């Protein structure tokens, strides 16, 4: 059975991700206590299901510690198990809760030694939830949704579940430093020292996927040197990440605006590695 587990911080897009999986034909269960995961898998197997998606969060904090051993056991039984941990900056989460006028799940829950009259503020709820979920954050692939629209998150989730079963999926992501480094990046490379096509009025409205920008950057020795250095670094250390039993490795390439240089480098790296690796491309600042 192919099993996808969705967890993460409230307001980071878990419902959006679960809906994508439901549309893809997965049998979906929301807010399942992790202690019931193995029995659910057994039940769905008896029903003949081949795919299962489960969302869980801090409301089941008491049983989250057992999720890691359960994942190991399910994998030993031959199941393909993936876990996506969705997160976002505190500022982004506060904005989302304010816009939707929804309350945080922990605001209705009394924590140990908490006075019933002392309700947590939204910021305190978010910080407390991060602490409670830290036990599972390292179990899977982290997705930073801080600057993502719902449509872009849907596209990213579709890309991840559409990838073939492989020992490791290599994700190349472009981003703009002015909007912050992606929280889900495993390796970060800064390409802001390269000549910027933004200062050419002919190239400014284009992206690193357009032929004029590609020609401009491909003719620069510094660009080719840096591209080669990044490519060689990833090639050298990729086997070590595979031996570490990683399911995903995110290589983030950043420039000032996330439109030209980082996009070009990501596209070239993806083209090189896709011959032998399972590759996914993300451009955080491109619509």
TrEMBL record:
Domain (RapZ C-terminal): residue spans on this chain: 169-286
Residues that hold ATP according to the record: 8-15
Pfam families recorded: PapZ_C, RapZ-like_N
SUPFAM superfamilies (UniProt xref): P-loop containing nucleoside triphosphate hydrolases
InterPro entries attached to this UniProt entry: P-loop_NTPase, RapZ-like, RapZ-like_N, RapZ_C
Transmembrane segment boundaries: none
Keywords linked to the UniProt accession: ATP-binding, GTP-binding, Nucleotide-binding
List of residues binding GTP: 57-60
Positions of the RapZ-like N-terminal domain: 1-164
Protein name: RNase adapter RapZ
Organism of derivation: Herbaspirillum rhizosphaerae
Gene: rapZ
